[in-house]
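User: Small ask, check this?
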Amino acid sequence: MNRISRFERWISGGIALFEIFFEKLAHHGLKPGEFTMLWLIGLNPDTRQGDIARRIRIKPAHMTKLVGRAVDAGLVTRIVPERSTTSSLGPSMPTTTA
């Protein structure tokens, strides 16, 4: 198998994954990067947004925008411990009414 056909198979696989993603999750309004961020926060509650940004290899400024949208949508909560200047992120907990 030559390099071109391996590359073409790799690209085709990536395109197929995006098609499945959009077919299954697009109705939630999530983009792949937003889904990845939420998934990592769910697996690593109380993590810092800089750690997530490094993990998914995006710039801190872009991560700030992603987190801001997720906070506004009620998907993520910023957690600021007492006597701290940094915050961590956690999944938002659904509210219940008694």
In short: The longest helix spans residues 3-25. The beta strands are 76-79, 88-91. The helical segments are 3-25, 32-43, 49-56, 60-72. The mean pLDDT is 79.
